[in-house]
Amino acid sequence: MDGYGWGEAIALQIVHRTTVWETHGMGDILGYARVSTGDQDVAGQTMRLEEAGAIKVFTDVMSGKSMERPGLAELIAYARKGDTLAVVRLDRLGRSLAELLTTVETLRGQGIALLSLEEKIDTSSAAGELIFHVFGAIAHFERRLISERTRDGIAAARAKGKLPGRQPLDMSKVHAAIKLVEASISPTEAARQLGIGRSTIYREMRRLGVERPI
Predict the structure, then answer these.
(1) Closest Cα to residue 200, out of 187, 186, 184, 213?
(2) Is residue 174 classed exposed, middle or buried when 0-12, 13-18 and 19+ CB atoms within 10 A define those classes?
(3) Which residue of the set 36, 96, 147, 199 is catalytic?
(4) Is the pLDDT confidence value at 154 over 80?
(5) Is 36 a catalytic residue?
(6) 55 exposed, middle or buried (CB, 10 Å; 0-12, 13-18, 19+)?
(7) What angle do CA 26, 136, 175 make, to 5 degrees?
(8) Considering the domain boundaries, does residue 117 fall inside one?
(9) Do 133 and 203 share a domain, yes or no?
(10) Where is the catalytic site (predicted)?
(11) 182 and 104 share a domain?
(12) Which run of H or E residues covers position 118?
């Protein structure tokens, strides 16, 4: 069973509102449900999200090791600044901590709040805004660790007379970046949030005929 034990610890620091509707008066609540091919709880997730005030629920059905999440990309492109993305629990946003952090940073960059029903995380409130800072700090820490490990690996390979080859391009990240650009996020910011090169995004934009946001 996937989940984030630290989410419950963080949730204890958040002021829980008596109703979701009191917390979200500025924008719309958009639900997101993710299931695997062997998981049949999409209807249950959808019902809970609608009960929490979601006016529209986007879904993804994941199979095998596929990282494609067209439903989430559609939600992010659809959402406006001030809206809230709601999930039943945090692990619906990512199958790994790195994937979760990337998604949370994307939401923050677009001014979209995050609501997790089970962990009672609500970043649209003053207290909940601290959660975005916590996620940001964790993401920064993760990037530094990855950078240090990469440098150490390259140094070790060179010491042995070997040079590491180029890593294969994750096209799911490229597609997600294009969705962000189409939603008026700059290519530079999209590249930063998804951890890919700007040149890759520009190349794909030219191929698809996507114009730069004004």
Answers:
(1) 187
(2) buried
(3) 36
(4) no
(5) yes
(6) exposed
(7) 80
(8) yes
(9) no
(10) 36
(11) no
(12) none
